[in-house]
Design goal:
With 302 residues, this protein is an alpha+beta fold. It is built from seven helices and 18 strands. The chain is 28% helix and 26% strand. Helix 1 (3-14) packs across helix 2 (47-59) and helix 3 packs antiparallel against helix 5 (200-217). The protein is globular.
Amino acid sequence: MTWWNQLDQLLQQRAPSANVIKDAVMSQYTSFRIGGAAKRMLFPRDEAEAVLLLELCRECNAPFLVMGKGTNLLVSDAGLDRAVLNMLKMDTICVQPEYTMCVQSGALLSKIAVQAQQAGYAGLEFAHGIPGSLGGAIAMNAGAYGGEMQQVVQSVTALFPDGVRTLDKNALHFGYRHSIFSEEEGVVLSAVLKLQPGDPQAIRAQMDDLMVRRKASQPLEYPSAGSTFKRPEGHFAGTMIDQCGLKGTAVGGAEVSKKHAGFIINKNHATFDNVVTLIGIVQDTVYREFGVELEPEVKIIQ
């Protein structure tokens, strides 16, 4: 019996009301708009259900992928022999006293930032234009315009193979696009954010300014996974790619953006192989010209 048949049986027995999609087409759930069908996609509605669904996956040895908005994923067109745990229905945002917020992992950063602004809580302005969800942002310590998640995260509750743990900021091992979730198999369930007092109008003005700058400099009109490469120490990936004359370089429907060389975009029905090949061309060219190895920021899933 296949793992997905076993999982179906376990779900029917122990989680009959679980929200499950069979053969979920990943291109519909990722910002790159690329990806074949995943065997099963599960949508937990709260922390207890997320723990149960992961427990069932492990019982039948189902390989699994945890995702939120899918804004940092490049998924194979061949599909995924995995159970995908989609956290987007876990999206509760609680504004609490003393400039704290308790937020579930599936909540979108844009919505969290707006609720913080309305409450007069400052510190999340940088996150307003980041299109992903809280869980993924914490796992990769997402950042923009001088801000990073490590500046606002006070604690995280997550499911690890040995059970649910709540970790304070110092135990999260934050670094550049790095956290404890880069080292250990863990699933973010929720987090407490610590912000500062601010004027709602001033916060809104800063968020609007950053959004104007983002729209002016990034190819938001095309599907992509944001910045394709991590920033190499002492360099800027986009600048090096531009200096190599790679803007506009295309493989099939994938292209190095003419607007921002740090972005590879799905310009015209790009395939997984188109993007992977183009990533390799960029890496080889930059290494040849600068001796710098570019590491993808996008997660390549196959």
